[in-house]
Amino acid sequence: MIEWPEVQRLMNAFPRSFINQHGEFIAHREANEYIILHDCESVLEVKCKVIEWFSRGAFKTAPFGERKNREFHRFMLDGINKYLFTSFTPNDMDEIYTYLGNSVNHERTLQFINSGYDMSVLQEDRP
Q1: How far apart are CA 18 and CA 10, in angstroms?
Q2: Ordered per-residue pLDDT tens for the chain, 127 residues
């Protein structure tokens, strides 16, 4: 498992987040936004999960009414940006979710992270 200071940094990026008895990091309880943290052996694996699984919540998921959905999207986007030291926009999250969300292309996620989050990596081989 990753080191505790990294877990604390992740938790600080998503206020009111917690880790349950199953090793799941719950970023937002009401919207059921979580990643499995107990199997992450490196910071890179955590970053991949944050991008692959939280990008939908930062852009598309709509579990609430219109106003609360906007607040929820902002909460998730702010948490992602704080944890990854990025400044992604909602439009960036649209592309990130489209090309990397749900771990649809894990190798591309790794390329994206290793490039320093260069958005042009998402454009490669684009249909």
Answers
A1: 10
A2: 789 999 999 999 999 999 999 999 999 999 999 999 999 999 999 999 999 999 999 999 999 999 999 999 999 999 999 999 999 999 999 999 999 999 999 999 999 999 999 999 998 765 5
Q: Is the pTM of this model over 0.90?
A: yes
Cα–Cα distance, 102 to 99 (Å, whole number):
9
Q: Which of 31, 18, 97, 32 is nearest to 69 (CA)?
A: 31
